[in-house]
User: Which sequence fits this backbone?
């Protein structure tokens, strides 16, 4: 009986491996993709990815949704962003979200995409942090820019929501609620998402 159980277990393990999916629904994990990156004249530092919980590493996972491929779904509670793929899969990214009082949810679309974007702090933020007034007309893109290497600008029927999907140099904020409402990803992840997401893509932010 023991030998038979071992054979059954081995067979199940082989079937899982052949299917390309682990028991937790992960098809592929990209933990090796967080090294230093040269981009547009900048040298992004490597991320000590071993210090980031594994669930927040970029990975292809099983994902059941009626939304069409290309849709972006943000789960602010779980701190995940999903880019819907074909065949019941999604590319999943770990995210940082808005802290208490700055949460946002709803449906929007990607109206614009920018590389190394300029960051302009809103007037309300300058009111809370007067030292940011020097960037009232915009902080140029760069390694210390809060928007990181890429930004996707979210609009809805009323126009610019003021919210962005963007990179951040603060990799240790992933998995936490620390932002002023925007959805932040590690810079290596926002570069990947930027290359996949289309202008006009539907974005659903859930709370």
Assistant:
């Amino acid at each position: 009986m023991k030998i038979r159980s071992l054979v059954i277990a081995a067979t199940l393990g082989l079937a899982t491996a052949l299917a390309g999916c682990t028991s937790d629904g992960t098809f592929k994990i990209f933990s090796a993709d967080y090294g230093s990156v040269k981009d547009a004249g900048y040298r992004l530092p490597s991320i000590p990815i071993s210090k980031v919980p594994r669930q927040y590493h970029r990975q292809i996972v099983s994902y059941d949704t009626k939304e069409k491929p290309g849709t972006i779904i943000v789960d602010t509670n779980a701190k995940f962003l999903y880019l819907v793929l074909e065949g019941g899969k999604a590319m999943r990214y770990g995210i940082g979200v808005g802290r208490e009082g700055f949460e946002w949810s709803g449906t929007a679309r990607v109206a614009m995409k920018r590389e190394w974007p300029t960051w302009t702090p809103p007037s309300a933020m300058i009111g809370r942090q007067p030292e940011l007034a020097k960037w009232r007309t915009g902080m140029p893109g760069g390694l210390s820019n809060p928007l990181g290497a890429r930004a996707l600008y979210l609009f809805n029927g009323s126009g610019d929501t003021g919210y962005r999907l963007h990179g951040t140099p603060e990799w240790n904020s992933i998995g936490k609620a620390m932002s002023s409402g925007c959805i932040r990803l590690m810079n290596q992840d926002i570069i990947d998402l930027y290359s996949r997401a289309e202008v006009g893509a539907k974005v659903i932010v859930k709370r």
